[in-house]
């Protein structure tokens, strides 16, 4: 496996594994995400992407191995510097967009002014006072990302964030993700849509059956689909 050549990592895993009963969901996985970069985590459905991201964000604990955040062992205090959207956005559908953000902001001791900031950032100001039960799936995704940005995180973790977005929404999100890294936010984005990752990522990791088969800087001239298929086919044949 190729190594991402830098010592400036925002988050690293060292031989991390996760078992559910007798099944290995993640196997002896070591990865490194560079600061101020976009890391694209690729893999087919069921590869273990969501399980890995849940470990990085403290939702579940590894069975073995270590996770480091910003050059120290990961602790729950590090969640103050991590924002995430994994699976469905955690919304109260009887509340408005602003009220959903204010609930989270109050719990985190963040000024309600920040709620307007992230609504504006995600182009949701016109829905500020609209109940989220009336939101489309794409609007819920964008509000979920707004929630993840509330605490000005150093690391933003997005699990299949383009789900439910139309082509214009996908294009807008792509532009936003590029600005996140430029503003000092490191991003991990998982997807099985190779073309989307190729357009936003600086580095990629390819996950299959719980194992990280490949990790390296992305080469804009390389055929990512061919690389992905070659690596997966080789693993299946072994």
From TrEMBL:
Gene3D superfamilies: P-loop containing nucleotide triphosphate hydrolases
Keywords: ATP-binding, Nucleotide-binding, Transport
Transmembrane segments: none
Pfam assignment, any one: ABC_tran
The keyword ATP-binding is annotated on this UniProt entry: yes
PROSITE patterns in the cross-refs: ABC_TRANSPORTER_1, ABC_TRANSPORTER_2
Residue ranges occupied by any ABC transporter domain in the UniProt entry: 11-234
Protein name, UniProt field: Lantibiotic ABC transporter ATP-binding protein
Organism expressing this protein natively: Acetobacterium bakii
